[in-house]
Amino acid sequence: MPRRIHITGASGSGVSTLARDLATRLSSQVFDTDDFYWLPTDPPFHEKRPIPDRLRLMDEIFLPRRDWILAGSLHSWGAPVMARVTQVIFVTLDSAQRVARLRARERQRLGDRIRPGGDLEHEFRGFLDWAASYDDPDGPGRSRASHEAWLSTLQQPVIRLTSDRATTALADQAVAALDAADRGH
């Protein structure tokens, strides 16, 4: 049975880490929606790629394959991709833990550029504020409420995981849940 898995959740919840681990375990390839959503810029994540171009690239690069894992969010623009998905994994994590992970990740990635006086300090603070607002039902943009509403419309099995455990344990849980979902079909 083909496995075309979409893993989604809030920024910092462990979506990308879980996707990479599952790709290794399942001998699959992992792709990230950010690589299609954003045009390459320095610093990254400043210019959106038009939706038709995102979808065309995804179709050229991986969608026709039998198995793949897609990490990230596409709930507001990816209906054609979702038509090919066989399972969805929704990853959650407490807001404070997510923001702490994001802070550490961005410090490692951007270093002094996000420190006080750095050229990306303001953008970094805005990003953290945006990420922290995910659990606020009135927050801007992508939110837990919008994810939940979207998930409720899907035909695919939705596996819900909390990433407050070691990566290995989370991946073990994901594989077991995927196997159970496969047996249910």
What global shape is seen? globular
Q: Show unreliable segments.
A: none
The arrangement of helices and strands along the chain is EHEHHEHEHHHEH
Number of helices: 8
Average residue-wise pLDDT: 91
Instruction: Name the beta content range.
Output: 5-15%
Write down the Rg.
17 Å
Structural class: alpha/beta
What is the topology, as strand order, of the major beta sheet?
Answer: 2-3-1-4-5
Biggest pleated sheet: 5 strands, parallel
Tell me what the structure shows.
It is a single chain. 45% of the residues lie in helices and 13% in strands. The longest helix has 17 residues, at 167-183. Helix 1 packs across helix 8 and helix 5 (95-110) packs antiparallel against helix 6 (121-132). The chain is α/β, with parallel strands linked by helices and 185 residues long. It has a 5-stranded parallel β-sheet, with helices on both faces.
Task: Describe the secondary-structure layout.
Blueprint: E1 4-9, H1 15-25, E2 30-32, H2 34-37, H3 51-61, E3 68-71, H4 79-82, E4 87-92, H5 95-110, H6 121-132, H7 144-151, E5 158-162, H8 167-183
Parallel strand pairs: 1-3, 1-4, 2-3, 4-5
